[in-house]
Write a structure and sequence with these properties.
By secondary structure, this protein is an alpha+beta fold. It has eleven helices and 15 strands. It folds into two domains: about 100 residues; about 240 residues, Cysteine proteinases (Cathepsin B, Chain A). Helix 1 crosses helix 2. The protein is globular.
Length: about 400
Amino acid sequence: MKVLFLVLILFTCVPEFCHAFSIQQGIDFVLSLAQNKPVQQAFDLILSLTQNKLSLLENSKFVQQLFDKFKSEYQRTYLNKQEQQQRLEQFKETLKSLILAKVQDLTFQLKLNEFSDWTIDELQTLRGYVPHNDSDRDAPIDKPQPILVDHRRRSSLSRRRLSLSRRASSLPASFDWTGRVLTSNSAVTVTRPIKNQGQCGSCYAFATVAVLETVFTLQYPASYDLSEQQIVDCSKAYGNYGCGGGFFEKSFDYLKANAWNLDSSSSYPYTANDYSSCKAKNSGVRFAKLAYGIITFGDEAAMKSYLYNYGPLWISFDASNPYFNSYASSVYSVSNCGTLESQTNHAMVIVGYGTDSSTGLDYWKVKNSWGKSWGEQGFIRVRRGVNMCGIAARAYYIGLATS
């Protein structure tokens, strides 16, 4: 009877008519039930049993209890009480954002994650794509050719140059590079696992390396974990800004100048800072001569073809919407984000496409570099066909050079 009574309180109680102690008693009970559950599950359970959800934020004990659970789950330690209070306030703002999202007709879900106590300035450091100015908009001279891939057999057949083989009209309804293996060696995956850039605006380097890792596997049937730190350190001389952000072109210019050599991440490990000068050993892999292309602004049909025929695409994206930080699952679609390349601020990699069975929305499957705890195991599905948040504003593909 006590269980039913406390649950009933949470279901029906409105602060104006119920005693605060009764509400807190119910919250304490639910949190005790969720003691060994993730903080998100505890939060969802309490939200589902509460009518006036925003009133929970006025309950300082509840917010503190949830924050303590969050700190334990994400192993947080703070420098002093002042920082802890600041983090608590930021965590409370995240809770408010998630509660408000519950009453909106969103096509995607949100969740608490490792960024739920980060400040706006800290979140900004993750977005390291620098929009181009006019002097950076030169088109590539050498149009690349794709590596011949037999998708039915899931293998790289040769490095023979060929024209774009399949147009958008003849492509499969869905496609995904992740998890694909080589027929010649089923232990070799075409893409590498999700990585984490940490508190450094090196998304441009992670996106560049993610594309290059697949390109190398398609060139030579072998898979290597390549060095993002080498791009961060060594491409500064070519116009990138280390942890302050960068471009695809400048990263590619460095790779070309370095005779297409890139070290492994084990020999040139990631440090999430840009304090060091270039320490490339050139002891990792060497690519065949490469070239890149830029897909016409907004042409998402062409993006499908290039994705299928060349491999993952490097894209810029406007990740300014707070919902992006807390994205959990389903198809990301928002109205208040930029669609021009000049409005984008984050670099990621498109690895697939499809149609969501629940919402009916077409989507791009996109690989982020914020770790596996973010999104769908590190990925996000972004609405396709509407240039969502500038995803089709600046898309690059890499192939074999023709000269």
